[in-house]
Design a protein that fits this description.
single chain; Rossmann fold; 3 domains; six-stranded mixed β-sheet; 23 helices
């Protein structure tokens, strides 16, 4: 039936309603006279009048426009209002016009019976289209919603007609709500979770409590994680408040629950300072940080947004996503987007773009940042991360760009790998040039932070994929720790830090306490609805395999250099007093480094990097593929 055309479906529904009109009239006579009657000409004329009236009222109130598959009880409400009008008309006809052989009480019985029959037919159709398939029922996930407030109500209402997920009940900490019902489902105490998981075969518990902070959410997750269920939250609470609930929003846990930290609200004037009504450029616009920066930037009303990206698909993807967002925000004709497929190493092309576009602010995220890859491709990594950055810095100075923000890394602090050393040299370039002359108008700054969840360089996607295939999850070292923050929080803090930058300032984002990767993996296993398998729990689902640190990797990352970081206008951003090399001296060192890179002098490059970068302590064994190839 689903494959029928709309006209055929509507014809079948109308024929069904005409038949039910006849049946209800016939039954009403039986109830009134206690016998079955044969329709004469008068009754047939009455039936035609009633059928046409019924179709008219159902049509004008939109009942025939509803999709039975997704309507359910809402459609019954619509039918009820149609029958108020229909019943009033029938009662008026039979009360004012005396029809031979038709008792006046039929004017009450017939509409009541017909309303029941039509409503029942709609609900049966809804059930058959959604739940009649036994295969669907076996695949359906039973979920509990934690939170019986407005958020929980909206989620449950949005899932009422979903065949893949069934709301089996609610959980709430408010004792006054226990044993009461919401949308026909009982509200239980959190103490009943264990029994509910078993008795109702619960596979997911959905947290629908947007008002709580990270500390409270952590306690709730710890309480639930003892049970073998997937813990999920709604990632888009703005859509929830607007009444937009998508099943896709609850098919997986909210990755931010891994951090268990509160996010500080952004300071509006810092967000807007370098973006509102200005021309903004983002290098590496298709990368994880770059793309999120672009999405945050278009919310802040720039005149133009310039995308610089070397990867064609990444550039296409971010451009498409931004255009969709502009349409969504109603800004498609207000903000112009320019895309350039170009490497930051192309000095002339970069200079021409900046000269023609005249950006007010540049956010420089383009970099080779995968530690093992850069460690195996030393010259390429250094050339891109150092001299590509230098191209942008020089062009910014030449064209009086107002603000330049370099996205740096915690790996730049006492680095043990080429990637970290290259980012530290990029920082020194920025510091040295910005302080080399008072005539320079560009306000330079660098923002240093650690790992970002779900970025292209993050281990989280790898862990999730390993869990998907049953494990094991590979861990470099049992004690390894890293700093983490969400990608949206990182992007907002970068924008705010850049607004405070001047003369080569280096900012550090407060990433909270370092997280032990093993603890993060265990949390990830629990949130995914699985158990950890080890010697104490040999029946668990997912195991962890220790594979050892890779070349250039640290056991613990650092964010600070120096003893006295200074506070700023933002509680999550600190400014560092960091040493640098004077430009006249540093420029000569960079020229020498460039010659060594062009000639692939790996040994000499490492020696020079040690001189230029404070605390650089590379691996004793060089892993560059060209250097080590046999």
């Amino acid at each position: 039936m689903l494959s029928f055309s709309r006209a055929v479906k509507l014809s079948l529904i109308i024929l069904n309603d005409i038949f039910l009109c006849f049946l209800s009239l016939w039954l009403s006579f039986f109830l009134r006279l206690d016998k079955f009657i044969i329709f004469n000409s008068n009754l047939l004329i009455l039936l035609i009048i009633l059928s046409l009236s019924l179709i008219f009222f159902l049509f004008i109130l939109g009942s025939y426009k509803s999709l039975f598959r997704y309507s359910g009880l809402e459609l019954v409400k619509n039918i009820f209002f149609s029958f108020i009008l229909y019943g009033s008309l029938v009662f008026l006809i039979l009360s004012v016009i005396a029809i031979e052989g038709v008792p006046r009480s039929i004017g009450i019985l017939h509409p009541m019976i017909l309303f029941i029959l039509i409503s029942f037919s709609r609900l049966i159709a809804n059930y058959l289209l959604n739940y009649g398939d036994k295969k669907k029922l076996t695949k359906r996930s039973n979920i509990l919603i934690y939170g019986a407030g407005n958020a929980g109500f909206q989620v449950a209402a949005g899932l009422q007609n979903n065949g893949s997920m069934y709301v089996a009940g609610f959980i709430d900490d408010d004792t006054s709500l226990h044993k009461r019902t919401l949308l026909g489902r009982k509200i239980y105490s959190p103490d009943n979770i264990k029994n509910l998981v078993k008795s109702k075969n619960i596979s997911h518990i959905l947290l629908a409590i947007p008002s709580i902070n990270a500390t409270v959410r952590k306690k709730i997750i710890e309480r639930i994680s003892h049970h073998k269920v997937v813990i999920v939250t709604l990632p888009n609470l703005n859509d929830l408040y607007k009444g937009i609930v998508n099943v896709s929003d609850i098919n997986k846990f909210n990755i931010e629950d891994l951090l268990e930290r509160n996010v500080v609200q952004p300071i509006s004037h810092l967000l807007n300072k370098n973006i509102d009504s200005q021309v903004v450029m983002v290098t590496g616009a298709g990368g994880s940080i770059g793309s999120e920066l672009c999405k945050q930037i278009i919310k802040l009303n720039p005149i133009k947004l310039v995308l610089i990206e070397i990867n064609e698909f990444a550039l296409y993807k971010i451009q498409s996503e931004l255009n969709e967002l502009l349409i969504k925000y109603g800004k498609f004709n207000e903000i112009k987007i320019f895309s350039f497929l170009v490497s930051i190493q192309d000095k002339k092309k970069i200079s021409d773009i900046i000269k023609r576009i005249k950006p007010n602010t540049i956010y420089h995220t383009a970099a080779y940042k995968h530690v093992p890859i850069v460690e195996e491709n030393i010259c390429v990594g250094l050339k891109n991360n150092i001299f590509g950055t230098l191209n942008l810095i020089n062009s910014s100075v030449d064209n009086d760009v107002s603000a330049f923000v370099l996205i740096s890394s915690d790996k730049a602090v006492r680095p043990t790998n080429i990637m970290g050393a290259s980012k530290r040299i990029a920082e020194i370039c920025l510091q040295s040039i910005s302080k080399s002359s008072k005539l320079i108008k560009t306000k330079f700054s660098a923002v240093r932070f650690g790992n970002v969840l779900i970025s292209s360089g993050s281990v989280i996607p790898k862990f999730i994929n390993q869990i998907k295939f049953g494990g094991p999850i590979t861990l470099t070292h049992p004690e390894v720790t890293r700093y983490f923050m969400t990608i949206s929080e990182a992007a907002q803090l970068v924008i705010q830090a850049g607004a405070m930058g001047d003369q080569g300032d280096i900012f550090v984002l407060d990433m909270g306490q370092p997280i032990k990767i093993k603890d993060l993996i265990l949390r990830l296993i629990k949130l995914s609805g699985y158990s950890y398998r080890d010697e104490d729990n040999p029946e668990g689902d997912i195991s962890i395999k220790v594979v050892g640190l890779r070349p250039g990797e640290k056991l613990h990352e650092e964010l600070l250099v120096g003893e006295s970081p200074m506070s700023t206008d933002h509680p999550k951003i600190q400014k560092l007093q960091d040493s640098y090399i004077l430009w006249n001296e540093f420029e000569e060192a960079l020229k020498h480094l460039n010659i060594l890179i062009e000639n692939e002098k790996i040994d000499e490059i490492i020696i020079l990097l040690k001189k230029l970068v404070k605390g650089y302590s590379p691996s004793k064994v060089i892993k560059d593929n060209l250097y080590t190839i046999n």
